[in-house]
Sequence to fold (272 residues):
Amino acid sequence: MATQTDVMDMVSQLKQRGEAFVVATVVRTVAVTAAKAGAKAVITPDGTILGGWIGGGCARGAVLKAAQDVFKDGEARLISVQPPTELEALGVTPGQSLQGVRFAKNMCPSQGTMDIFVEAVMPRPNLVICGSSPVAVALARLAAVMGYAVTTVAPQPEQGAFETADARIEGYALPVSETARRFVVVSTQGKGDEAALRAILDIGADYKAFVGSRRKIASIRGKFVADGASAEAFDSIKAPAGIDINAISPEEIALSIMAEVTALRHQKNRTR
Fold:
């Protein structure tokens, strides 16, 4: 069985690798239970308990179900595993949520109660910047300050425009999918516009945008569609990128784009 030190080392390693996982922590126990307060387990998106211990079958099913829900919406949950008599006394049924607590039935002979906090640790959102224009450089700096992982996508001679980046892709060969939430901005300023737009056309991303005028993007769209590209896929690219703040300088344009990305990133939580 992994010790708590082993679990924390595992958490650190997973974070460094940018992998998504859930940490389940026992926060309270009543009567006899297999795991005690402070016990932790690390759970992967496929439901594997990678390490740690939060009890046997009495709690395992409820925790794994909660972990899957947390992966879906990113919201932490408090699970209370209690014997049937305790649930009945509270007037709740297994699976019911009340005042932020989801209840589950403990059918083990111990008949103890365990409260378990389940939270997701997700990779940093990734801002993918295609091009090396002044706006692209300003975006990379601002995104890093705001906690985004920054991927710069440009031909090798242009990569020197960026002081730092979490990842660099030479050319415009982007992976189709990614574990972290991904926001993609094309800011090539005429140097490789079509190559960059073609590269992002069919990739998965929460946001795809082009720094350029409506007239320019309309012209490129006409060429792409004439060549057989999907009009629907092309129209998923926001152009011009950013919200309208009457931006003029590269830094102001970068600010308008990050404002739009931030609003989209937090839209789900704000709706709730």
